[in-house]
Amino acid sequence: MIECPSCGKAHRLGTLFCTECGTYLPTGQTLRTEPFPTDELSPPRAAVWQAESVESEDITPYPVRIHVLETGREIILPALPELLLGRMDPRHGIFPHADLSPDRALDLGVSRRHARILQQRGRAYLEDLGSANGTYLNGERLTPYVLYPLPRQAEVQLGRLRLQITLGD
Amino acid sequence: MPEEEKDYYAILGVPPTATQEEIRQAYRRLARRYHPDSHSEEASAEKFQEIREAYSVLGDLGRRQAYDRRRAERGRDVTVALAWDIQVSRQTLLAIPEEQMLYLLVDIRPSGKTAFKRVPLNICLVIDQSTSMDGDRLNHVKIAAHYIIEELEKDDVLGVVSFNDRATVMFPSDRLKDRQRAHARVSSIWASGGTEILQGLRAGLEEIRRFHTRETISHLILLTDGRTYGDEQECLSEARRAGLEGIEISILGIGEDWNEHFLDQLAKQAGGTTTYIAYPQQIRPVLQDLIQRLSALMARNVTLTVHPTERARVEAVFRTAPYMETLSPTDHTYSLGNLMAGKSMQALLEIVVRESQPGFHPLLHLEMQAEVPGLNRQERLVLDLEREFVTELVEEPVPPTLVKVLSRLTIFRMQEQVWKALDEGRTDEARRRLETIATRLLDLGEPELAHTALLEAGRLAQRGQMSSRGQKAIRYGTRSLGLKEGMWP
User: Fold this and answer.
1) A98 and B450: CB-CB below 8 Å?
2) Region B37-44: what's the mean pLDDT?
3) Which of A64, A146, A166, B279 has a Cα at 20 to 30 A from A56?
């Protein structure tokens, strides 16, 4: 028997998808995100990094397109003021808008609640949620729980998972 | 005159209708037997070379098709109208005294070796004219009917029945010689009264039977927005009888008030489909699409029969394309419905296997049967599946198509769990499941359906119940998840 790493349901050997929570079973072994050795990570910058932000008269949020460089997968997220990126864990009630489990997120050090994209009054921000292995915006490591302006097109890295994030269509 | 090619099928000992899977299987077995390095008495470099040559052609779909065409030109094989391919989640299994799961994806499609011949249609539109249809709904039904009258060919038969508390034959079934009269009769349908589906169903079936033969495609299309009261059981037995005669029933359910359990069952009894119409403007495209699919019918009554050996058993069987559906067997046989020209049809089998002795072991006998009305014949394909059981697990990739199909099927099954939880009053569980489904749908790039699932989860949390529109959208939306994939490379 094998156990679903997300919800704990037992399945027969060879089962590919958990019928309880939909997790792809051949990936995802343990539940915890293991922190990488510290020498691999660059220290976070203290100051809030200034970048060209999305400014617009139109205050409705943009839909967000995430291109996962690891797997080439495209995720299109609805236009919501807050979008959570991470790994799904139904057992603990964590349902990210973008579940990166299929992209080897666990191996690449993505936390369950890793980061979020906020869109408020026509501005977009990226915030690290105190993840184990950090969030990088265009190569800069973010200080946890600080809002960084998110440009229209950005290279974002969660742990070692590299993403290209585009706001709007 | 080109040199006569070797008979690669004979070398591998498989029939020309063999699937890629059977060819792989045969190759593995023979290669092991004749390999010069094997300690077998039969080891032979020459024989092994021949086997490898045969596999290099037949094992490659592109080269095999070219080889098949050359064979066909020499008139070697009877041309079959249907072909299939089978993908299996594992090539090897563990020899352990524990149950293991094996998935089989069966993809059935026209072989492309026979020309498609359109079979005349025998259509009857059964139109709900109850008061609730008044206005937009009935108007769009009429517009759709006008289009259909123009699109059917002159050998096709059309009948139109309208019903409220009783049925009226507006246009008796006949070959379409007088389209103007058909248009006029459709225009004169007006709304009044209640909804008694049985009345319409009976009158419609009576019309259809007058032209029904095994050589036509007879299809009753029911367009309704309402529930029927008290005559459900009689409707179901009428549908069952029609199904046995080879008459199919499809249903377009308009708006939110119809009873999806009942109408789903009704269509299922007679091998048709139910489609959810949220907005009246969708009626015409959906109806046109249905007629187009019937015009393109290549094979009907496609069935799969599975006979597992003593070391295997069938856990579940699903159709995954064109629509997702959990299938239940009649005497080991699963009914898949109709196959359209240029389209493929898919079934997914979950097989539970247990074997502790290493070696090659047969697991099951699979058989596909279908009626090909254009060629007036029955076709049959068979496969005996065996797997190698080993003592140490070999890392092997799962076929990507299989993963894709399974990920969608998993969502479909998760939503079935939502209805079950709701029926049994476990609202909290239903809400949690809906949230899980929403995340999975976002993974698949289905933001709209995901959004609906999230909204409905919110409704459940606040009011303890879902909206009727949301329920239908999720039910029929997940069912169609299989449709968006190109199933064949």
Assistant:
1) no
2) 72
3) A146
